[in-house]
Amino acid sequence: MDECEAACDRVGIMAGGQFRCLGPVCHLLNCYGPGSTLVLNMNGRPDCEQIDDHSVDSVVNQLLPQSTRLRSYKGSYEYQIDKNLSWAAIVTTVEQLKAVLGTEDVWLSPATLEHVFAKFMATDRQNEDSAAPDASG
């Protein structure tokens, strides 16, 4: 998808056999992008074995109430940040998170075309699941 973002001035996305959107990449990201992604890696901390999901979530939710945890695995936590929050506010808050949580291993990324495509595919899968007939009879 990175090549597509770099090489194309207009992109179309099809999901579930239906044409969903067409436009410049920046327009698709603004309209359909889910927001920024924040990854916190707590493995560099000496007490990383004692850190639980709830404590990290409570700190992140206190400082970034517009975020949702997507997944966590062995000390790495990934959050989706609301797209309506400004980059300045996000970066300031990430600096606060680093200080409070005691980690320097932080990754912050804007929405990509891959995120937009995955969002359409997830919506399509949900629609298929809800439209599927009940197998119990």
UniProtKB/TrEMBL annotation:
GO MF, any single term: ABC-type transporter activity
Signal peptide stretch: none
Cross-referenced InterPro entries: ABCA
Superkingdom: Eukaryota
GO cellular component assignments: membrane
Record's protein name: ABC transporter
